[in-house]
Amino acid sequence: MNKIFKLLAFVILSKFSAQNHRFIYEYKYVPDSIKVDSVLTENMRLTIFKDHSEFLSEMKAKRDSAILRSSQKGGEIGTDLSPGNIRSMVWKNKNDIKNFSIEFIGIESYKVIEENSLNWKLVEETQKIQNYNCQKAILKLGNREWTAWFTTKLPFQDGPHLFRKLPGLIVAIEDSRKHHSFRLIANYKTSDNSKIEKNTKLMRSYEVSRKQFNKKWSEFRKNPVGMNEQFALMNPSISGYKIYDANGKELDLNEYRRSERQKTKRNIANNNNFLDLDLYR
């Protein structure tokens, strides 16, 4: 009976010790500015911890956690879960010092230190969204103008992406062109302590300023390379490897890389409407 009591107490304690708050946003975006009728949707998660918050794709978070668990157990690093389309992640500290986003150029990741200040303009206009009484606020960020709706009923000065520092949680936000929008669809407490910093140990990220990242992105956009070639450039000590097709036939490496470059060029052309146009200009 004593063991049962201890187990029951542990379960109850675990349940009530879930201090992290998680908010799920539906993210709708137009990847190609020329094809404005082509809208993609992906759920994103904002998790608020004691000293910071993190924002990333719900699918990516689940997949990264599965990969991390697999690697810790010494098993094969791989999962059938979809990685989602949104690879970037955001880390915001409670003291607002050295906030950053993880951005990707091909397979290479960069820790981009946030340098923008958020100069919100509060508007005396209210609206009920998801049963929350919300107030309107306007902001210019990333070469876009944003309209946000926040509620003081959720007392967190936070929101999706890098948006924060309003008197309450951002329930919905959309840019003036209606190319990018976030809308809160769920919220709950969780004891899940998986964090971006743990998952990023599986990859090497370079810390850069926004200006430095933009320079690297501009160079990549002008001279794009495929994953195979980029991996070779990142790991010059590795040489002599070969490429095979699904049937085990060896492929011409130079021809394969030319094909990858063309594919990367098409991908860049079709995904040009970034949320932060200033960072990816």
Please outline what is shown here.
The chain is α+β, with helices and mostly antiparallel strands.
Describe this structure in words.
This protein has 281 residues and is of the alpha+beta class. The chain is 26% helix and 34% strand. The protein has six helices and 14 strands. The strands form two sheets. Strands 7-8-9-10-11-1-2-3-4-5-6-12 form a twelve-stranded mixed beta sheet. Strands 13-14 form a two-stranded antiparallel sheet. The N and C termini lie far apart (66 Å). Residues 3-16 have low confidence and may be disordered.
Unreliably modeled segments: 3-16
Rg, Cα atoms, Å = 22 Å
The average pLDDT is 88
Shape descriptor reads globular
- Helices, by number, come to 6
Strand content: 25-35%
The spatial strand order of the largest sheet comes to 7-8-9-10-11-1-2-3-4-5-6-12
Q: What is the helical fraction, as a range of percent?
A: 25-40%
Class inferred from helices and paired strands: alpha+beta
End-to-end distance: 66 Å
Taken in chain order, the helices and strands follow as: HEEEHEEEEEEEEHEHHEEH
For the secondary structure, the number of strands is 14
SSE layout:
Layout: H1 2-16, E1 20-29, E2 40-48, E3 52-57, H2 58-72, E4 89-93, E5 100-105, E6 108-113, E7 121-129, E8 132-141, E9 144-151, E10 169-175, E11 180-190, H3 196-199, E12 205-208, H4 210-222, H5 227-234, E13 243-244, E14 250-251, H6 253-270
